[in-house]
Structure formats: C-alpha cells, structure tokens
Design a protein that fits this description.
heterodimer, A: 306 residues, alpha+beta, Arc Repressor Mutant, subunit A, SH3 type barrels, 5-stranded antiparallel β-sheet, 4-stranded antiparallel β-sheet, 9 helices, 13 strands, 26% strand, B: 316 residues, 4 domains, 10 helices, 12 strands, 35% helix
Chain lengths: 306, 316
C-alpha cells in the first residue's frame, strides 16, 4: 500500500520533535528510525523547509539545517513536543503492556517500574475506554511445558528460574531434562540439576522462567548428599488435611494423633505449623522455640504497623 | 500534487495548533498557505484535509454555535490533546515500552505499534533496549484485532458473521465493542450485542466473516465501570481482594499472584492481589509470616493476629 499525503504529513509532523530531541542525528539514522529510505527522509526535510506558521516569513518557518549529512532544527515553531497517540495506538500500547505485565516476573525489579508506567498511561488514556476493558492472560505453564518438551525431543538442556516455596527463594538452574510426568493436578519435570549436582523434580507451575540451552555432560553422580535429617514429633488433629494426605507416607504413627517424621528442612515444618492450626510440634525443643520466636516477631510486626 | 497536499496539511495543523481562538474557514483560507482556487474548491480541499487528519487521530475541535462567530463554525487543535502528555520516560520505561510494542511485531498491528514506538521513544538518544528474554511465544497474531481496535478507538459499531459452534449455522451479529481479553491462547471480544440487547462474549476464532467497522464514530459509550473480567466467566474466580505489605525480594509466590505492586520505602512493597477466600488469605500470609504483613481486609488481619496469639499460647 503506498503512503498517502496525510500519512506523509504525519511523518513530517513527527520528524520535527524527533530531531529536536536528537539534534545532530544523521540522515541514515533518521531513515532507519522512521523505517524509510534516505531519499525519502531528504525529501521530507526539504518539504519541512517550506512549512511554518501563518505569515510564512523566515521567522515563522521551521528552521532546520541539513549539512554534512547531519540534521539540526534551530526553530521547531510549535512542534517541539511529540504528537499524542491516537486511540488505536493507545489501545495497542495498553494491551501490549498488560501482556508484558503477565510475562514479567513479579519479583523482577522491572515489574514495579512497569506497574507505575501502566498507571501513568491509564490516567492519560482511560477516559473513553476504561482501564478494565482489557484483560490479558498468558499461560505460563503451557509455555514452560512446550519448551520442556522441545528440550526433551532435541536432547537440549534448560535454564530455569525456579521458585522454592519453603525457602522462599528463586534460583537459576541448568537442568538436563529426563522426563515429564503428570500427577493428579500438577505436571512435574525430572532432570539432572547442575546446580545441586543431583537428580531433582520440579513442579512446572513453580518454573518462573525457562529457556533452551545447548546439551551438556552430566557429571558423575555425587554421593547421597542429604544427611539423615532429624526426627520430629508432631500432633496432627485433622487427618483429612492436605498436609496429612501429602505426607502420609513419611508419618509414623505413635498414638491417636501423634506422629514422628524425619525432617530435612526445619523451615518447611515451621511454615506448615504456622499456617495450619491442626499441626503442633511436640519435639525437638529447638524447633518449638524458633516457631515461638517467629510468631512473636510476626505479631509484633502486625501490632506495630497498625 | 500530493507533495503540495502534504505541505498544506502540515501548515494547517501548525496553524490550528497555534491559534488560541477558533479559526473561521475564511480566516484559514486567508492565512494558511496552500489554499487556492474558487471558494468551492477551497471548501472541498479543507473538508478533505480535516477528515484526513481526523482519520489519522488528530483531534480538530469545532465550535459551531458560538455566537461570536454567528453561524460560521470555527476550528482549532488544542495543544493538550495534540501533544504527548508525558514528555519524559526513564530509560527503563523506554525499554519496557519498546519490549511491549515488540510483542506485536509479527502481527497485523505491527505497523501501528511501530509508529507508536517511534513517537513515545523520540526522546531517547539511542535506539532503546529491548528485553529479548521477555519476548515469549505469544498469541498476538489473531486476525480481526485491527478492526476491533479501530472500532473501539472510534466507538463504532461492528458487524460480522459468527459461528457459535461448528454444528450451528453462522449468524450475522451487530456489536458495540467494549473490550478485549485473552484466555488460554485465544482472543475474546466482549460487547453489546445489539440484536440481543445484552452484553456477550465472542471468541475471535469463531468469527467467520470479515469484520465490518461502521464509518459512524462515537455512536455509543463504554460504561465507565465496565470490567471485562465480569463477563469472562471462564477466568479464575478469585474474588477476595487483599493488600499485603511485603519485604523487598521476599514472598515470591505472593508476588506472583499480584496485580499491582508499589514500592513503599527502601524495604517494603505494597502488593494487591485476589485470593479465593478469607482462610486462603490467612494461610498464605502465615506461611510467609517472616516477610509479610496482611493489611487488608482488616477482618483477615484480625484473624491472623488471633492465630499468631494461638501459636504463641501453644508453645510458651
């Protein structure tokens, strides 16, 4: 489709503030930023020489110079600021930013910048089309699954950012994937993890970012790295709870509601005991103490912030 | 010929933008370079010019019943509406905008996105960064988005043939578009179905004809409180709004649920999210007891304090 006179006029109107903000820009750079040929940019600039405000004396014309391939605008008249978006453009931008907000990790520092930016633009552009007229959801699980499958098919490695919910930390790992398993309601990826030098299982919905890497060698397996773990004694008062069902295999019954289990990560149990009122730790005492001091500190924080 | 028209359009825009008053046509013809010929020719030229500029998104205001001008309409372009309202973006904001607009790159909206990018980014010295790692396989190539976006922008009615499901015959629909949504990789239009007198959801892939956009503009208004998620019944039903205060770089799984995160100070962020229920809010907050304070709803906050007191009572 060839450009009509009006579309070209818009480019001329846009060229002025662009050069004002990029004084001394070269013709080639200008042509590439506006996606037209050098010849066209030169024609545009030659036409701009003739444009200005009523009166059209040198004082009222746009004053630009084009020397040694370099463009300078000395007087833009009233065109120094970029032209506003029309509504199609603002919709395109709003949808694109909403999509980006879905893609970007919420823990990414850029997320906050993005949210502020979206609000700033909403304030400006939501008069005719309310801010909640758009809703963009990107299926991250599906993207992760697609990429994991591709890695398996082609024998590639993966780089993942993985969220560990107990440690509340996100780690970046290189994985040599071995298989994908679908359990009841979660999809898991088994593979050799180069960060822990051992086989690991990852829940797909805790993979925050994923990309392909070239294949790499899997080193000799390390010896069973986890220690024995310590033994804890628990009281569990609701044996229909999710906690009980998920951990049934590891729980050794002592009496009606008392159980013993081997524990590798004390933090994991502290989080459960804090958020689930049906669990009580009987021993060891050290664990009870850290639970108590954690609860006290949290309560203090709540009261202080009131 | 078209060179002259381009020049005239630039001059007209500049003159209307410069004028503090509404300019009458006679004044425009006298003052703005490029208008010549018989009155009738000038008149025709001006009408075309005005429509062309409007079609490309430049708002020209008309004051037709101002007693000062008797019955002759006056025209002007308000600088507030012509100029980009936010003049400075940080380089990170610029990069985010470029990255976002790049999502449209290979779609039918690529050209619109590109021209938007050029203007918003015209204050940057170098071509802005694009965060390549954020460009994921995406769903931005559905057809029909161009027409719907234009119709939304102009508040114009659209008509199309729609096939509810494969076994049914197609039906002609007339719709006032209100908004767009994606779900599971597909695009949905929500709008007022004029024959059914109700707000309906349409899956874009089931539109089986071209989408015709009416040339009439501003024929309806989108209600101010319109929320597309109220009509997208297939979306998750988390309905309880919560506000957490979260330590910087902590409670990642809560941050992943957020729809808004704002920085409070150097250590804390404020996070807005939706959860299933009060119990759900309490559990999530207590799981992250060491890095999170639930601030709203106050009801849940009180329950959390009570639960913490219980824990303390259990272990003292």
């Amino acid at each position: 489709m060839s450009e009509n006179a009006a579309e070209r006029a818009l480019r001329l109107l846009d060229l002025v503030p662009f050069v004002v903000n990029n004084q001394g820009i070269t013709i080639s750079e200008l042509a590439s930023r506006f996606s037209v040929t050098r010849e066209e940019i030169v024609k545009d600039l030659n036409l701009l020489f003739l444009c200005g405000l009523p009166g059209y004396t040198p004082l009222e014309l746009i004053d630009l110079s084009l020397e040694d391939d370099v463009v300078v605008i000395r007087d833009p008249q009233n065109l120094s600021l970029p032209r506003n978006f029309n509504y199609s453009e603002s919709i395109v931008l709003r949808i694109a930013l909403a999509a980006l907000q879905e893609i970007i990790l919420k823990s990414d520092p850029r997320y906050v910048t993005l949210s502020n930016l979206i609000r700033k633009l909403e304030d400006t552009y939501s008069a005719e089309i309310p801010s909640e007229a758009f809703h963009i959801e990107i299926e991250k699980d599906k993207i992760a699954l697609e990429i994991a499958r591709q890695a398996l098919d082609q024998g590639l490695d993966l780089n993942i950012k993985y969220l560990n919910k107990t440690k509340d930390e996100v780690t970046e790992r290189r994985i040599s994937p071995q298989r994908i398993r679908a359990n009841e309601n979660k999809i898991q990826l088994d593979g050799y993890c180069h960060l822990s030098n051992d086989s690991r299982t990852f829940n797909l919905n805790q993979i925050l970012e994923i990309r392909l890497l070239p294949k790499s060698k899997i080193p000799e397996p390390a010896h069973a790295s986890e220690g024995f773990g310590s033994e804890v004694e628990l009281e569990i008062n609701n044996q229909d709870s999710q906690f009980f069902i998920e951990n049934e295999a590891a729980l050794v019954k002592q009496s009606d509601n008392k159980f013993v289990m081997k524990l590798h990560n004390p933090q994991w149990l502290i989080r459960h005991a804090m958020s689930n009122k049906d669990i009580k730790i009987i021993s060891p005492i050290a664990l009870k103490e850290s639970l108590l001091s954690g609860a006290e500190a949290a309560l203090t924080r709540y009261r202080d912030s009131n | 010929m078209s060179q002259a028209k381009t020049e005239r359009l630039v001059n007209l825009t500049m003159a209307l933008l410069d004028s503090r008053r509404y300019m009458r046509k006679s004044e425009i013809f006298r003052k703005v370079a490029g208008y010549s010929g018989s009155d009738e020719t000038k008149e025709r030229m001006f009408e075309r010019d005005k429509d062309d500029l409007r079609a490309l998104g430049i708002e020209i205001e008309v004051a037709s019943h101002d007693p000062l001008f008797e019955d002759e309409p006056g025209y002007r372009i308000r600088p507030e509406s012509y100029q980009f309202p936010i003049t400075k973006f940080s380089s990170e904001e610029n990069a985010l905008i470029s990255t976002a607009l790049n999502l449209w790159k290979s779609s039918e909206m690529g050209g619109v996105a590109k021209s938007a990018a050029r203007r918003i980014l015209s204050s940057t010295e170098d071509a802005p960064t694009i965060f390549e790692e954020l460009i994921t396989p995406n769903e931005f190539n559905e057809s029909g988005l161009t027409e719907i976006t234009r119709a939304l922008a102009n508040r114009s009615r659209i008509t199309f043939d729609y096939c509810k499901n494969t076994s049914e015959a197609k039906q002609a629909r007339q719709v006032n578009p209100f908004g767009l949504s994606t779900w599971q990789g597909s695009w949905y239009l929500v709008g007022e179905d004029l024959d059914r007198g109700d707000i309906r959801v349409f899956k874009l892939s089931r539109i089986v004809s071209r989408i015709e956009v009416s040339a009439k503009r501003e024929t309806f208004e989108i209600p101010n409180d319109f929320k597309i998620t109220d009509y997208m019944v297939m979306l998750s039903q988390n309905t309880l709004s919560v506000r957490w205060r979260i330590k910087r770089n902590k409670a990642h799984s809560l941050r992943n649920m957020a729809h808004e995160i704002t920085e409070l100070d150097e250590n804390w962020d404020s996070v807005l999210a939706k959860v299933e229920s009060l119990e759900n809010a309490i559990e999530l907050s207590l799981w992250h007891f060491d890095s999170v304070i639930l601030e709203e709803p106050i009801e849940a906050r009180n329950l959390i304090e009570a639960r913490l007191e219980e824990v303390i009572a259990k272990y003292v």
